[in-house]
Design a protein that fits this description.
290 residues, Metallo-beta-lactamase, Chain A, globular
Length: 290
């Protein structure tokens, strides 16, 4: 059964050094990356609003003061609610679709079937700088490259943040380390698009890159490849079942091959729901699988 998403809001589960300047704050829902250096502080994602003060204290412990730049990897609440706290001082950066989603009323159906309602954010909590494909910020002696892949993965507005010299990447919800991922179909998400985004990301970054996932632990390219393999292979498995004439209920009853069952942690996206996401992605037919 799905748990309360906000049950541990405001509690940091782990503080994990990624490099000498980059720190990962692991939360139960939605991770945060903090980049503190000679030019100031850049942060990737801002978590639930309940986390703002504990994040600020961690920034100060790391030697920072205010957040100068805040990058939103996508629009979901566990990654952007803190905009209302940090946006008072930070310049917020995101893909153009993130601003579109945050500036208009949105509804999302949760795991329990509940309707989550999101009113438009105030101007200061919206991205002030948006982009279509990519941009770079030269900050703290590094190039922070923010990249949007054109497929639609978790949403239509996903970005990955690549600290080029530091060999670190923050993926947002394009990558989970331990569970089947959510797909926001109503705002451009697609399991095939996620597989293609992961394919391109793996081709792009060095093999020794450290990866801050959207949900889960600090990882590397090996884990990223494993997640991509799971998504691609379960897509192909379900397509084969569909080609045999099987419908959703029958495929769910038969289940996925046993090597993928551990991705159902009993709390988040279930195996059954993931199969539903896979079938819906094939029926949408927005893009070809790489």
């Amino acid at each position: 059964m799905a748990k309360d998403r906000r049950a541990l809001a405001g509690k940091i589960l782990e503080v994990i050094p990624v490099t000498d300047k980059i720190t990962m704050l692991r939360f139960d829902q939605g991770n945060v990356a903090i980049f503190v250096g000679e030019n100031g502080t850049l942060m990737v994602d801002s978590q639930f609003k309940e986390s703002s003060l504990v994040i600020q204290k961690e920034i100060e412990r790391l030697g920072g003061t205010k957040v100068d730049y805040l990058i939103n990897t996508h629009w979901h609440d566990d990654h952007v609610e803190g905009n209302e706290f940090f946006g008072k001082t930070a310049t917020i950066i995101a893909h153009q679709d993130v601003r579109k989603h945050l500036s208009t009323y949105q509804e999302l159906i949760g795991l329990k079937g509940e309707i989550q309602r999101f009113p438009p954010k105030e101007e200061f909590a919206l991205p002030q700088i948006t982009f279509e494909t990519a941009l770079s910020i030269y900050f703290n002696a590094d190039e922070v490259r923010v990249i949007h892949f054109p497929y639609g993965a978790d949403t239509s507005g996903d970005s990955i943040v690549w600290f080029v010299k530091s060999k670190a990447v923050v993926t947002g919800d394009v990558f989970y380390t331990e569970t089947f991922p959510w797909v926001d179909f109503d705002r451009g998400g697609d399991a095939i698009g996620r597989a293609n985004t992961l394919h391109d990301l793996i081709e792009l970054i060095p093999a020794d890159t450290k990866i801050v996932s959207g949900h889960g632990r600090l990882a590397g390219v090996k884990e990223l490849r494993g997640f991509h393999h799971m998504i691609r292979e379960t897509l192909l498995f379900v397509r084969k079942k569909m080609q045999e004439g099987k419908e959703l209920k029958q495929i769910q009853a038969e289940g996925l091959p046993k090597e993928y069952k551990h991705w159902d942690d009993g709390v988040y996206v279930s195996e059954s729901l993931w199969i539903e996401f896979l079938i819906k992605s094939w029926k949408l037919g927005k893009t070809q699988l790489k």
